[in-house]
Specification:
The protein has 758 residues and is α+β, with helices and mostly antiparallel strands. It has 21 helices and 27 strands. It has a seven-stranded mixed beta sheet. It has a five-stranded mixed beta sheet with strand order 13-21-20-19-14, with helices on both faces. A four-stranded mixed beta sheet has the order 1-2-3-4. A hairpin with a 2-residue loop joins strand 23 (629-640) and strand 24 (643-654). The two termini are 46 Å apart.
């Protein structure tokens, strides 16, 4: 693992390398040599991503986790396109721990650079230097992470070039074998052929192609694409339908046993003693009782290992544990909310964006509003789990649903004292990730527990209540927004927000050597505020980073998820104040943002924004850009017995070049229902460090019977691919709140919009 000092020096060294090529961290240097891929009998590695089997089948190293977002279909499409071979002839194999497979795009996208600066015809030297430095350092760090809606963006150049390079090497091998010019060799349907009638599949040429380094290889131009932009059947669906798909909780190994935990109810607390450990050990089926300290930022507890999970769970419930309290003040959400409100009215923190001077126009009216959002749990349908097998004296194997296999491996090493090189991680399908599985606490727990039963695989499964009560939550946040308006113009916008920073807390848990003593400004707290597309002469966006004591983590769309609610709802307030239609005001403010303007206009057109609705229905509209994509949504809602019923959501997205339109549509549908659940019901309460949340009755999901009709429209674009998994979430809450205001004349400035009932 790269050390903190080396990482920082690597980033700093970029200052002397700017003119060498500002994004040279990229595709060619990420192809690898082929030595990264272990090869079986007859297999040949053509680079670090692709190896060929004797029958011509291609094996593709897959570093990204499949959690329903379709990445195990979209990424192989990039390679199949370049190799001109059927998609079903590509088999995925798990990528190893090598740096080659790290996610560079996710780290580069985390920089707090305003989109206007990035979209400039010629970004400044400072921006190019910064992006190169972070890209270079991220490539050296090599964190294999599935997150930030970055999988396709990160793979776009690299995997296409890997496929194109492999194809070119096969062509050279064929030309050399047949004594013909390379330009006369054709690749089609997984075979290499020549007009003379000679033909061979990839497996027959792979050995001769290995080691060949074609010069000046370029991926296909868009005009030659046959697969990219189409919607072939998803590769993960058949197994999920017939039940053969293997999620973490499905792992069954010979001689497997199970573990259940009783946690300290107080977040961050530990175990003082266990009064009846001997009696619990004597229960039927019980194999071990293991005391767990707070691992990887989690909470301490006592685990019971037994022959079945129910035996383990029943025994764990009988433990008589004396708990050690958490260190420091015990947080409560009511006090936190009040503190955030006060700090959001203050003037402290980091200024993420500033331009122009505060308006002094005579007659300008100041409009001010306060908004807030609560802590939120991830509520993945597959509860937290991991399976581990410890083989004395120094070997460990893990099977788990994770977004960060390399970091899970490191966490297991810290928990057990083993060398990370002696730990293998097998990533299963994920029954939901949403950022929760960017944390590695469960991997550390399972690894520690496995040491108590050497040689036997042990599967740790949390209960749903534990999943809710021991999550790393989306931070609570508050914001004060101020605007100056005059004569149907918005002269300036000022945003002061307050809430916990996510990235420093996550780094302390997962990459502790990289977490410094002082928090750096965290984009995730201010995204969706500082990077607005709206053009006002004066803008200032500042965030006051807090430390509430409640454990926080990445949640689907992160800061955008609540900041879009603040900003888009406030834009609606300004439209009302200046007596303009919400669509018209937005279009006015987007006069120099043609991409956003086109998305908004298309959405309004598809939704029939100006057409009348049946009595008792209303529409709300919102626009938000996140993860490089722009999304607009129009929500149609009515009230049924005083409760919102969302009938239709029209969604338009510009996510750059689309690899698989069907997956984009599915992701928008899923994000909208996910966002609707959060907007209506999502809230986590904490009292004296104890989470006041039980199971789905107190954190309900939108049922299928109440799910809206979703109509998704995808804008054509020549830009490189941008995010899809998360950008559909942020516009939903403000569009819904806007529609409810049209129905009730009541402005809702706090989430959730409904109060859950047990």
């Amino acid at each position: 693992m790269m050390k903190r000092r080396a990482f920082l020096l690597s980033a700093g060294a970029a200052s002397g390398a700017l003119l060498v090529g500002c994004m040279s961290s990229a595709p060619a240097s990420r192809l690898g040599s082929g030595r990264e891929l272990p090869v079986g009998p007859g297999e040949v590695a053509l680079n670090g991503w692709i190896k060929v089997q004797p029958d011509g089948t291609v094996l593709l190293a897959m570093p990204r986790s499949e959690m329903g977002q379709g990445v195990h279909t979209a990424l192989p499409m990039l390679v199949a396109e370049e190799l001109d071979m059927p998609l079903d002839r590509i088999t995925l194999v798990s990528a190893g721990p090598e740096r080659l497979y790290g996610n560079v795009a996710m780290f580069v996208a985390s920089l707090p650079i305003h989109p206007r600066a990035l979209d400039a015809p010629e970004p400044s030297a400072g921006i190019r230097l910064t992006r190169w430095a972070v890209g270079h350092a991220a490539a050296q760090l090599g964190v294999n992470a599935t997150g930030g809606s970055s999988s396709v963006a990160d793979a776009w150049d690299t995997m296409r070039l890997a496929g194109a390079t492999a194809r070119a090497a096969l062509v050279l091998a064929a030309a050399e074998t047949w004594g013909v010019p390379p330009a006369s060799v054709v690749v089609s349907a997984g075979r290499v052929s020549h007009a003379s009638g000679r033909s061979a599949h990839f497996g027959e040429l792979a050995a001769r192609a290995a080691g060949k380094v074609p010069r000046e290889v370029q991926p296909k131009p868009a005009a030659d694409w046959k697969l990219i932009g189409t919607s072939p059947p998803r590769r993960d669906v058949p197994a999920k339908v017939d039940g053969t798909a293997q999620f973490g909780i499905d792992i069954r190994l010979p001689d497997q046993c199970y573990a259940a935990i009783q946690f300290n109810p107080q977040r961050g607390g530990a175990v003082a003693s266990v009064r009846n450990e001997a009696a619990v050990r004597a229960r039927p089926g019980v194999l071990a009782v293991v005391t767990l300290p707070p691992l990887s930022g989690g909470t301490g507890g006592v685990a019971v290992v037994a022959a079945s999970w129910w035996q383990a769970k029943a025994a764990a419930q009988q433990l008589e544990v004396q708990w050690a309290p958490a260190e420091g003040p015990l947080p409560s959400t009511d006090a936190i909310a009040e503190q955030l409100r006060l700090r959001a009215r203050g003037d402290a923190g980091t200024t993420f964006h500033s331009r122009g001077d505060r308006p002094t126009d005579a007659g300008a009216t100041l409009v001010e509003a306060e908004y807030s959002a609560p802590y939120l749990a991830h509520a993945t349908l597959e509860p937290m789990n991991a399976t581990a097998r410890y083989t004395a004296p120094d070997r460990l194997e893990l099977w788990l649903p994770t977004q960060v296999p390399g970091l899970a491996r490191s966490a297991a090493a810290r928990a057990t004292g083993l060398d990370a090189d002696n730990i293998a991680v097998n990533t299963t399908l994920l029954g939901g990730g949403f950022g929760r599985r960017l944390d590695v606490d469960v991997a550390a727990q399972a690894a520690r527990i496995a040491q108590s039963v050497p040689g036997r695989p042990v599967q740790l499964v949390w209960t749903r209540e534990q999943d809710f009560q021991h999550d790393f939550y989306r931070p609570a946040q508050a914001a004060t927004l101020r605007a100056w308006v005059k004569d149907q113009r918005v002269l300036g916008l000022e945003v002061q927000s307050a809430g916990d920073a996510v990235t420093p807390r996550w780094l302390a848990r997962t990459l502790p050597w990289l977490a410094g003593p002082v928090d750096l400004p965290d984009r995730s707290t201010a995204e969706g505020l500082f990077d607005l597309p709206y053009n006002m002469p004066y803008q200032r966006m500042r965030h006051d980073a807090t430390r509430s004591g409640v454990p926080v983590g990445y949640w689907r769309s992160v800061g955008h998820s609540h900041n879009a609610f603040f900003t888009e709802s406030f834009i609606d307030e300004l439209a009302e104040r200046v007596k303009m239609d919400p669509l018209a005001l937005r279009l006015q403010l987007l006069a120099d943002s043609p991409r956003h303007r086109a998305v908004l206009q298309r959405c309004a057109q598809e939704a029939g924004w100006q057409t009348p609705l049946p009595a008792g229905r209303a529409r709300g509209l919102a626009l938000h850009a996140s993860f490089g994509s722009v999304v607009a949504q129009v929500v149609e809602v009515s009230l049924r017995n005083g409760r919102p019923q969302v009938h239709r959501v029209v969604c338009v997205i510009d996510c750059g070049q689309v690899v698989h339109p069907g997956i984009v549509t599915q992701q928008m549908e899923g994000a909208i229902v996910f966002g609707l659940t959060a907007a209506l019901y999502g809230k986590v309460g904490v009292q004296d460090g104890v989470v006041q949340l039980g199971n789905f009755p107190t954190q309900p999901l939108v049922p299928m019977a109440e799910a809206p009709q979703v109509q998704t429209h995808i804008m054509a674009s020549g830009r490189e691919p941008s995010g899809v998994g998360e950008p559909g979430v942020p516009p939903l809450a403000p569009a819904l709140a806007s529609a409810l205001y049209a129905l009730t004349s009541k402005r809702l400035r706090a989430l959730p919009l409904l109060t859950p009932t047990a």
